[in-house]
Amino acid sequence: MPRLRIGLIGWGTVGSALGELIESGPLPLELESVAVRDAARERSRALPDGVRIGLPEGVDVVVELAGGVDGPLGWARETLATGLPYVTANKALLASHGDELSRLAGANRGALLASASVGGGTPMIEMVEHLAATGQIESLRGIVNATTTYILSAMGEGRSYADALRAAQEAGYAEADPSFDVEGRDAAQKLAILASVAWGRWRGESEVDSSGIVGVAVQPGETIRLVAQATRERMTVEPIQLQTSSPLAAVAGVESILEVVVAGATFRISGPGAGGRATAGAVYADLARLVAGERPILFGGAS
Ligand code: NDP
Ligand code: HSE
User: Fold this and answer.
1) What is the distance between the alpha carbons of residues 155 and 1, in angstroms, rounded to a whole number?
2) Ligand 1: which residue has its CA nearest to atom 31?
3) Can you name the residues that pair with 184 across neighbouring β-strands?
4) Of 37, 83, 146, 210, whose CB count within 10 A is highest?
């Protein structure tokens, strides 16, 4: 089987972990190029030997693990306009321009995959896609930002907010700009993506009523979490004190959880919501679908 040639943009927490997986994993994949902002800087995982450093050219698939919106929007438009698959973990891009990109992929017989954009390594989008088939999803509820869970659970054990945020940053869970995490924007973007998939109509971050955890006090033993909830009509993200009996209260550290209610029955999934290795695993799973000949388009691709 011919190898799928990958143009990777980003060699940070997730991109470099994906590089390792491409090297060691079972799929027929070849890293053709890697783009970074500053190729000369010192990094914990060196750029790979024998791979062209620069933006993708003449590849079979573009994988964007850089973050931000402006650069990725240009790369995504260019890739999808030529009918190539675009794989990303970039929820900020999808919650602001997902509708346009999905249509572009549909019009050009491309593919748009983003398992890692919600739930890190936990296949939340796939679960919602599966459950959406009957058209009977009633609601979504979850904890989808690992950084705030990490901070709030550490604060519940007596650590300070600043200390816990620093630890989340050092572990590579926080966004490049952690205000996206603590102000609730990251969770709002993920919720908008899940709700778009659940009800078959793209909805953006701006439609979410959202507040973050800045200034929230947590007494030792208290279980406060940033909870994301959606129905067909409304999307909210807010810190909520949970009953200890709630399955959401059991989530700590880097874990994320999602509950989907379908015709009165509750379906639940949880797992690592961030971290290089886990998140790269979700990107790798997207690449496995392309290797298998699938051409999925997130949000349906209808024009
Ligand atoms: P990092 O900040 O660790 O890495 C970003 C990488 O992108 C760096 O290698 C950087 O280059 C490169 N980069 C940034 N801008 C450009 C540019 N304009 N041109 C070329 N390269 C660029 O980010 P993460 O790996 O943590 O996150 C990547 C994406 O994955 C984001 O969209 C994030 O939201 C998402 N994500 C992250 C998770 C996590 O646990 N970290 C989990 C789920 C999703 P340089 O190295 O030179 O600085
Ligand atoms: N910053 C994000 C989080 C990374 O803390 O959940 C995973 O998307």
Assistant:
1) 51
2) 67
3) none
4) 146
Q: What is the pLDDT of residue 220?
A: 85
Residue at 36: amino acid letter: V
Count the alpha carbons within 13 Å of 201 in the hemisphere toward its beta carbon: 6
Closest residue by Cα to atom 26, ligand 1, is 13
From CA 78, how far away is CA 72, in angstroms rounded? 10
Residue 95 identity: A
> In DSSP terms, which residues pair with 29 in a beta bridge?
4
Can you give the pLDDT at residue 303? 62
Helix (H) / strand (E) containing 271: strand 265-272
Q: Among candidates 288, 303, 17, 18, which has minimal Cα distance to 126?
A: 288
pLDDT digits (tens, 9 = 90+) for 160-210: 999 999 999 999 999 999 999 999 999 999 999 999 999 999 999 999 999
Both structure tokens of 72: 């990725």
Is 116 found in the same domain as 16?
A: yes
Q: Is 145 in the pocket of ligand 2 (CB under 6 A)?
A: yes
Pocket of ligand 2 contains residue 146 by CB under 6 Å: yes
- Are residues 226 and 296 both part of a single domain? no
Q: Are residues 205 and 296 in the same domain?
A: no
Range of the domain at 107: 4-120+276-302
Is any atom of ligand 2 closer than 6 Å to the C-beta of 205?
no
Residues 105 and 243 placed together within one structural domain of the fold: no
The per-residue pLDDT for 301 is 87
CATH number of the structural domain spanning residue 132:
3.30.360.10
- Return the exposure string of 245-260: e unless at least 16 CB atoms fall within 10 Å of the residue's CB, then b: eeebbebbebbbbbbb
Low-confidence ranges of the chain (pLDDT < 70): 303
